[in-house]
Amino acid sequence: MATEAKLRVIDADAHVVETERTWDYLEPAEEKFRPVLYTSPSAPTREFWVIEERIRGLRFPSLSEQQVLAMSDATGRRMHTPREARELDDVQLRLKEMDNLGIDVQVLHNTLWIEQVSPDPDVEAALCRSWNKWLADIWRQANGRLRWSCVVPSLLPDEAARQMRFAKENGAVAVCLRPFDGDKYLINPYFYPFFEEAERLDMAIAVHIANASPQYRQLFGSIFTNANSFALFRAPTMMVCHSLLNSQLPEMFPDLRWGFIESSASWVPWVYHEIANRWPAAGKTMSADPFGDANIYVTCQTDDDLPYVRSYAGERCLVIGTDYGHLDPSSEVDAISVFKSDERLDEVAKEQVLLHNPRRLYGI
What is the C-alpha separation between 312 and 266, in angstroms, rounded? Predict the structure, then answer.
């Protein structure tokens, strides 16, 4: 494991892309739940996960290297990663990639659970259990350098707690919960047992961009358009942060840490102004560091106006991630080196974002 003396950079938002091998950890009686990869003859680069005869989650296109390079040129961000590394068939290759990028530790988040995987509690529990066992095996091969955010069956709180305990024992540092889950919003009391167990285990709540509400999903239609994906996934992450700050949850769970992942940080000043206007009316006093006081952390991007955002976020709030393994507006494989060269922040501020803040968030 990277020693404390050498540990300098934690990538707070990296990914593992699920493969057919992810489901090799299903129990024999659960094989009937195994997701199947389907490719349409009309779109040979696209693959889709089919679960219970329905397309679920997200699977990025199998594009040629030339196509990915063209996307990188168009966006001004490096996106290409070796398939064996992003799918973690080759853990040592992933570690070499991290060495080349100047990253000591990556925190891995899922790809599939961006929406509801199944409305059936038994199916959801089986798939979560297999995914968590897969990540546990990856962690064991990585010498402590690949930590992870576990997925849990939200329909079965007791089973979720069992899986959280297994995950904690096998390298997980966070619990992935989605802004909307079925007909419930994340600050709903239904999730209090999840928060209580995460706090007890010293695990963060990772509110990664996602949306598991079929109703919300139907309202905005296809996830494969830029406009709809913003409304479906990025905006709800910000909404939960605002709701959290306006709730009693930070007082109810004072040691619980909250990470808002992959939604940029440009919205932080907006949320700050919103609570500054609303708190006096509710009889609350605005502190100098509301995000820090609530143990809230937000992943920034290199194209955020970082000095401005940081003036509202405070010193303890911001972390940064590469979105390694994905091909979307948040992906920037070279984000760490770009951030290090950013002259808008001094070296102390950079070290907080790269090391101290993510260490606190994830308890690393």
Answer: 10
Token pair of 194, please? 């999840």
Does a structural domain hold residue 5?
Answer: no
Q: CA–CA separation, 173 vs 193, rounded Å?
A: 18
Give dist(CA 235, CA 230) in Å, integer.
6
Alpha helical stretches, state H, the chain: 65-75, 83-86, 91-101, 121-141, 157-169, 192-201, 214-220, 226-229, 235-245, 249-252, 268-278, 290-293, 306-313, 335-340, 347-351, 357-362
The answer to whether the predicted template modeling score (pTM) of the entire model surpasses 0.90 is yes
Residues spanned by the domain of 244: 10-34+78-362
195 neighbors 164 (Cβ within 8 angstroms): no
User: Which region among 22-26, 64-68, 121-125, 258-262 has the lowest average model confidence (pLDDT)?
Assistant: 64-68
Q: Is 347 among the domain residues?
A: yes
What value does the mean pLDDT take over residues 214-242? Answer: 82
Asked whether residue 68 is domain-assigned, the answer is no
Q: State pLDDT tens for residues 88-97.
A: 999 999 999 9
